[in-house]
Amino acid sequence: MSSRGLALAPPAKNVVVYRNGDPFFPGRKVVVNQRRFLTFEAFLNEVTKSIHAPLAVRNLYTPRHGHRVAELGDLQDGCHYVAAGFEKFKKLNYLNHGRKELRGTRNSEGLQVSTSGWLFSPIFHSCRNTGSSHALGCFYCSVFRNGDLLSPPFPLPLSKSTPLQWDALLATLTEKANLRSGAVNKLCRLDGTQVSGGEELVNGDYYVAVGNEEYKKLPYLELLVPQDSACRTLWYVD
C-alpha cells in the first residue's frame, strides 16, 4: 500500500456498546477499524459476538434519544451506542454504567414484580454485583413467545432461595410476553411438555410462554438464538 493510501485510511475509533433493554449490562468497548470492517454489516456481526447478543445485531442507536446509526462513518470516537436486533429501541439509563435500579412491589412470597416485567428476589442485586449467581442461589431462564419467530427470548431471573408463587410468575410472564392471545396460562419446554411448578425450572434453559391456544412447536432456538454455542449461553450472565 502506498504512503498516500495509508494517509487516507481513517483512524480507528473506540466506542462502547450496550445491549438493548438490558439494565445490568455494563457495556463493551469495541474498536471500529474500517480497514478491518469493510461494511457496516461486518461491524454489526463483530458487535453481536462481543456483547453476546441473544440474536444478530442489526441496528445501533444513540443511548439517550434512540437515534439510529446507519453507517460506519457515523460512529464517533469515544461515544456510546445501543445494539439491537430488529426490535424497537428500549429507553433505559444506559450511560449510568449500563445499570438501572428496578423498582416494584413485594408480594406475600417475598418476590418483587417490577414495572418492567422482571421478576426478582431480594438477593437478585447481590447476584449481579458479585457475579456469583450460582453460589447465592440465583438462576436464569429465557422465554420465547408461542408462535412468534420475530421476537427474541426475554430474560427471567429467579431465586432458588425464595419460594416461588406460580400465579405471580404467570402474571409476570403475561406482562412481559404481551401475547396476542392474552394472558400466559402455561409455560412449556421446547419439546412442548408443560412446566407445572417453579421447582421444575432449570438454570440456563429456554421455555415458551403459551396462552389459551395450543403449544406451537417451532424452531425457536434455531431461528432466534445465534448458532455460536458461546452466544447460546444466556446473554445477561457475565
UniProtKB/TrEMBL annotation:
SMART domains: DCX
Domain Doublecortin: 13-95, 143-221
Domain of life, source organism: Eukaryota
GO biological process, one term: intracellular signal transduction
GO cellular component: microtubule; microtubule organizing center
Species assigned in the record: Eudyptes filholi
Record CDD domains: DCX1_DCDC2B
Entry protein name: Doublecortin domain-containing protein 2B
Keyword entries, A-Z: Repeat
